[in-house]
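Hello Y.,

Per our agreement to keep a running log of every chain we model this quarter, I'm adding this entry. I've kept the format consistent with earlier entries: sequence first, then predicted structure.
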Amino acid sequence: MATLSELEVVCQKPDWRTVGSVLARRFARPAALRVTSFILRWPVSANLATTAALAIGLAAAVCLGIGTPATFLAGACLVVLWYVADHVDGQLARYHGTESVTGLYLDYMMHHVVHPACAFALGHGLAARTGTLGWSLLGAAFALGLMTQALSNDCLYKALMGAIDKARSVPYEPRTSPDEDSGSLSLECGDLSPLSALHRLWKSSTPRATVRALRWGTQKCCEMPNVVIAIVGLAAAMVVDSGAGYGLARAYVAAMAVLAPGIGFCRLFRAVARRTPDAELRALRERLNADPSTGGSRSPIIRASLPLTPAPLPTLAPVDP
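Predicted structure for the entry above:
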C-alpha cells in the first residue's frame, strides 16, 4: 500500500501548504488525505465522493435546523466532516487521473447548495428554539448573502464565456487607447457614470487603507472555513452553557444576516462601477494572445481543446484490496 508521503505527492495540489485558508492547509487537506488513503481500497470515483459530501452537508443543515443543543452539536460535527470530505473528491481525481470540468461543476454546485443551507439552518434552528419566525428570516438573509457572493464569481465567468462565444465570429481589433471601449468584446452595462461618480466619491472620502482592512475582515467572516469555525465554536459554547451558547448564536446570526448580504451587494456595486468584467475580459484576451499554446494569434478565441489532463505522476505501490 502506498504511504501517506507518497500519496501526498500525487493527491495534494502542488501549492496545498501555502494556498487556501488556515483551516484547509493545517487540518482539512491532511485529514482528507487519510480518508482518501482509506477509501482507495474500493472503486470510489471523485464524483461519488462529491455526492457523499453533498449528503453530509445537507444532513448537517438538518441537524442545525432542529435547534436543540444535542442536534446542534451533531450538526457541528457533520459540518467538520463535510469540510474534510469536500477535499477528498479532488484528491481522488488527482490520484486516478480523472480531473474534469464536469467534476468541477459538480463540486461548485455542491458548494452552492450546502453553504446557504447551513446558513439558513442556523437561523431556523433559533426560530425552532425560540418560536420566533424572525430568526428564520435572518437565516434566509444570511443564506442570501452567501449566495450573492458566490454568484458574483459565477456570473462573471458566465459573462466572460458569453463574450468569448460572441467573439468567435468577430475579427479582433486592438484598442488604441486605455479609455477606448473594447468594441464587440466589451460587456456593455449601459450608462455607468452615476455609479462611477458615486464610487469615486466614496473612494476619495474614506482612507483607502482603512477601507481595505475593513473589507478584508468582513469578507473573511463570510468565507465558509470561518463559518465552519464559528459553528464549532457555538457548539462548544452550548456544551459548556446552553444559555450562553444560544445567546452567542443569536448574536452571530443577527450580525451575519446584515454582513453577508452587505458584502455581496457591495461586491456587485464595485464590479459594475469599476467595470471589472470588461477588465477581466481584456486581461484574458491579452494572456491568450501572448500564449504560444494558443498559436500566438491576435484572435480572441479560446481553444476548447486546451489540455486538462494532469502532469505525469510518480509510480506508486498498488493499494491492497
